[in-house]
Amino acid sequence: MLIELHIKNLALIKKADIYFKEGLSVLSGETGAGKSILIDSINLALGAKANKDIIRVGENEGFVELIFTLDEKRKEKLKAMDISFEDDILILTRKISTSRSVCRINDETVTLGKLREITDTLIDIHGQHEHQSLLSAGNNLVLLDSFCPKELSKLKSELSNDYGELKKINQKIQEGIDERLRKREIDILDFEINEIKDAKIKENEEEELEQVFKKGKNISKINDVLVELLSELENESIGNNIRDVFDIAILDDSLNVVVSNLNTIEDLISETIHYTNRYLDSLEYNEREYDKVIERLDTIRHIKSKYSNDYHKIQELLKEKEDRLNFLKDFGEEVVLLRKSAAKFEESILERCTLISAMRKEVAVKLTKRIKEELEDLNFLGVEFEIRFTKKDKISRDGYDAVDFLISTNPGQPMKPLQMVASGGELSRIMLALKTVFASSDDIQTLIFDEIDTGISGKTAVKVGEKLMNISRGRQVLCISHLPQIAVMADQNLFISKSTDGKTTQTNIDLLDKEGKIKEIARLIGGNNLTEGVLKTAREMIQEADSRR
Questions:
Q1: What is d(CA 16, CA 498) in angstroms, rounded to the nearest whole number?
Q2: N or C: which end of the chain has fewer CB within 10 A?
Q3: So what's the pLDDT on residue 488?
Q4: CA 517: distance to chain centroid?
Q5: How remote is the C-alpha of 16 from its chain's centroid?
């Protein structure tokens, strides 16, 4: 849901901070005050083409920011698109200068393409063709299926499973058909299987050999150092010096401490010589064995770098390769079984497609009638609506149906796809009718209706207001309108005005309180002359609207 809109230096807006809430928000105001700039600003933040002329006169850059709260569905979709967010909040910003445009999602700079990729999950703008989920032909089947009984979901699930299995079977058949490629793959598999088997790698073998390798690598250095140590310790001059001290110690008792320490040193030297000799005797340096360790490590590392660094994964790959090799060698017999299996799945798929199509067509008749009633309710007199079925060239997981929503808004006019409806006002009301019907199926949380009241008045305007109020329950609807019948239904009214200091002009956006709403409804009824009679009518209209909530 859109909770905040921040605009700076766009068109006549110097600075605007708008805070939205759930329900119906109606924006109204003086002619020429800049109501359309709000929609244009939102479009810019959603990735629309930027024109430098939209920057406020005298400024170098313009800025717009949208802040959304995310429900679970939106979060899952954004995660799938690798879009990061925190605290269930998504922030879209766009900065436009005379030379460049910068887009950001949660402070991370992104391309326009990336920005546009996520917008269809967040918002629908009706009255413009760019951001409308209901105008996507690929979405028609999803909407139709949402009205079908639960049996359809079960059939579609079974169809999808069969379709997946058939795809796997056909892939196996296709992989084995090219004899040259089959023989080449057999040769490769033979080589790889033998390579893995011949290596005879054991679990933890590499780690154990690493220890042997490290010791062997340093054995020469260890030997040289210890031999040098023994040479120094066994030097006769050390023993002679100690004995000389012993001889003079009888001349002075105060040298007894020195004698005691030298006795200890002599014992330590003797023990060290003994231990070092034993260690050197045990230190066998076999260059041939060491070379074998290096060769074995090279073999293990080659296998791991080629197949997997994990011992167990290598064993799994070996089993897969052996199974694949057996399949390719026995392909002639295997393909007969595969084709029989494929034929059974094809028969099952066609049967389910036929049942699904029949169910859809039955529901389409009822749905067409309901949509037509909604359109007539919005003053589309003589309107025709059709859900047209065509058979796809190839069956997919959804079946063989392709579905188009067609409409003719005037008697005698040919049926056209919804995407070809030219008038913004007509398109808004058509989308309102469809949204009314598909309210429970369409999960877009923020809807914007631009030009919704073009060419309507009286009872039709009342109907439009009621439908806008109804579809805003549990979601957010933003609407620009100059009709009191629509504005009176709002949970939140925003007033757009224009002011000037003689030098510059700017657009202001104000959230109306209860009294402000009464005055704005009165202004929409009778213009700027707010008589007591007009104000009374406005209050009565608001009371009547409140009673319908």
A1: 13
A2: C
A3: 96
A4: 40
A5: 30
> Low-confidence residues of the chain, pLDDT below 50?
128-131
pLDDT, residue 424, reads 64
CA neighbor of 24 nearest in space, from 423, 535, 382, 485: 485
| C-alpha–C-alpha distance, residues 307 and 352, integer Å | 43
- What is residue 129's predicted lDDT score, i.e. its pLDDT? 47
> What is the sign, positive or negative, of the torsion defined by CA atoms of 72, 73, 76, 78?
negative
Could you tell me which of 83, 101, 114, 111 has the C-alpha nearest to residue 44?
A: 101
Structure tokens at 191: 């080589």
Q: What is the pLDDT of residue 285?
A: 57
Cβ pair 156, 356 in contact under 8 A: yes
Distance, in Å, from the CA atom of 319 to the CA atom of 275, rounded to the nearest integer, reads 52
- Annotated domain spans of the chain: 2-122+444-547
Instruction: Give the chain's end-to-end CA distance (angstroms, integer).
Output: 21
Question: Can you give the C-alpha Rg of the chain in angstroms?
Answer: 41
Q: Please name which of 60, 54, 67 lies closest in space to residue 107, comparing C-alpha atoms.
A: 67
At 178, give phi and psi (nearest 5°): -75, 105
pLDDT, position 135: 65
Give the count of alpha carbons within 13 A of 367, CB side only. Answer: 25
Which option is the CATH number for 2-122+444-547: 3.40.50.300, 1.10.260.40, 3.40.50.720, 3.90.180.10? Answer: 3.40.50.300
Q: Can you tell me the distance from the alpha carbon of 186 to that of 170, in angstroms, rounded to the nearest whole number?
A: 20
Q: The dihedral of CA 512, 518, 522, 528: what is its sign?
A: negative
User: What are the beta bridge partners of residue 26?
Assistant: 479, 493
One-letter amino acid identity for 538?
A: A
Residue among 440, 365, 355 at smallest CA distance from 154: 355
What SS3 class is residue 184? helix
Tens-place pLDDT, residues 268-290:
888 888 898 888 777 665 667 77
Question: Residue 140 corresponds to which amino acid?
Answer: N
